[in-house]
Specification:
mainly alpha; two-stranded antiparallel ribbon
Length: 132
């Protein structure tokens, strides 16, 4: 290998490292603040015991997995009742169970989905709640 070729190789490697790492160092320290979903709805405010079908930590991490499981169980097996880990029974329905309490889709669902840049396909089948 000739010495002049080595100069071009170093320039190419340097340019690659710069371009590859650009998104990481450019956005350093610019993290968006995590959303705080609004739980202030008339239905939730009327509840004596404010609890979801599963604990909050589980719902934050697994709500889409739970909704997909509900969909499969309702559509494919004809099951309609979900028994939570607390033993309470719920009807497996996004519109009638989840959205009955979380009627503020824009302040609850959309806030987190927009933050994470995900577009769930819930609304291709379900009607959006108009809020209470």
């Amino acid at each position: 290998m000739r010495v002049p070729d080595f100069k071009y190789i170093l320039i190419g490697v340097g340019a690659f490292i710069f371009l590859f790492s650009f998104p990481f160092w450019y956005n350093a320290g610019r993290a968006a603040t995590a959303p705080a979903p609004d739980l202030n709805t008339p239905t939730i405010n009327e509840l004596e015991i404010k609890e979801c079908v599963e604990p909050t930590d589980f719902m934050r991490a697994n709500h889409m997995r739970l909704l997909n499981e509900w969909r499969d169980r309702v559509v494919r097996q004809g099951e309609r009742v979900y028994v939570s880990t607390s033993g309470k029974e719920y009807i497996m329905s996004l519109q009638n169970t989840c959205l009955a309490c979380h009627s503020n889709k824009a302040q609850f669902c959309d806030e987190c989905h927009n933050y994470l840049r995900v577009t769930p396909d819930c609304w291709s089948c379900h009607l959006e709640s108009k809020g209470k």
